[in-house]
Every structure is written in C-alpha cells, then in structure tokens.
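chain below, 253 aa
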Amino acid sequence: MSGLLDLNSDLAEGFGIWRLGDDDALLEVVTSANVACGFHAGDASTMRRVCAVAAERGVVVGAQVSYRDLAGFGRRFIDVAPAELADDVLYQIGALDAFARAAGTHVGYVKPHGALYNTAVHHEAQARAVVAGIRAFGTLPVLGLPGSRLLAEAAAAGLPCVQEAFADRGYTPAGTLVPRSLPGALLTDTDAVVERATRLAERGEIVAVDGTVMPSSARSLCLHGDTPGAVHHARAVRAALESAGIPITPFVS
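prediction:
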C-alpha cells in the first residue's frame, strides 16, 4: 500500500420524488463521488445538485455508468451490442460532465455500476465496449476490480487504471464480489466494515467470506450509499483511518 487511500461512494441514486441514501452526509466523508448518470438512477436535477455540492466540498466527481435499466436499478445483465454499449457509456459521461462543468468542476474518472461492473470483470466484449465509450470521451481513469477484464482493456487502451476495494461487500476466495442474492454479500456491522477498511489500509489485505486472506493494492475504498447504516459506517471508517494516520485523499484531481 502507498499509505494513501481514497474513499468513494455511489451517489445521486434518486429519481424524481424517490430518494435513496443521504448524499449530503456522505459528501462530508468521501473524497470521490460515483454519480449516477440517469441510466440506472439519477435525473438531471439530482445529478446537477450532487455535482454542485461535490464541487463545493472538493470531492472529485466520477461518472457511474450503467446499463439502461431504471426499473432494475442497473443490477440486471443486459446482452447489449458492444457498439451500442459504448455509445451509452459515452452518452452518460457527457451528460454528467455538462452538469459538473456547470458546477465549476469536471468528470474525473469513470466507474461502471452494478451488473455492468460485475459483467466487465469477465466479459471481454462488454469490458472492451465500456473502455471504447470512455476512450471516445478522453483519457479518464477507470475505477474497477483488481484482475478484471475492464482494467486490462483500459490499460491496453492507454487509460489510467485504479484498483478498488469494497468496505461493505463480501468477497469470494477468487477476489470477486459475492452476488447480492447470496448470504454474506453485505457487511452490515459497523465494526466489520471498519476492520475491513483499516486492514486494507494498514496491511494491504482483504478477508474473503471463507476466511481466505487476499493481498490487495486497492487505492480506493467504496462505501455504498444504499447499505443499511451507510452514513454511520462511512463516518466510522473515516474516523478510524484518520486515527491510524492514514491519509485520505482522492486518487485523481
């Protein structure tokens, strides 16, 4: 580990009158905001408001791109044609960047959401399509799971790659995330979430659901905004890391 750690969270996941999570509270804790771009959640006003608050607080704005799946919250696999998926990714980044620039900032990185994130771990064609969409926009860093096809394709395309870990998700011994439909998918106990974060920061390790200890070079730690107790978890993690002398800083400016 470099001794530096970024904290990221999925934000702007409301839509219309429906709200999910406490964006304002989490923007007081995290250093990077994965902002929903309207395909799995988020609407124009929500995106603009979160970008404005992020800019005001010095939080980096990232585009959380997804399948076109509002009804399923982006958590269902869609067998979309690669060219169409690349265009959808480009569309989402461009939309969010417009709101970010209106707030005096810009999109600093890209992270897929939900099913697209997990699919791009192994699915070469979709991983390549996501990267093609990003590359059409520019040379934004890509936030993803270590060892994924997504990061391999991003590196091959000349994009900066940032490895990510999850404070509140269960891991398989293979280093992938436990599907949300299975036991152990979520860590809901604050002490367990804090232990995951501090062990990663201090020892570069993550423990899988079966007890396997896995090395990790993750530079960014995700704290999901829709996990039960999300704000409490996030505040406890930040306090514990700061108490341990771990610098909390964005991975990109």
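The beta strands are 6-11, 32-36, 60-65, 107-112, 142-144, 161-166, 205-207, 213-215, 220-222. The chain is about 40% helix and 15% strand.
thats it, cya
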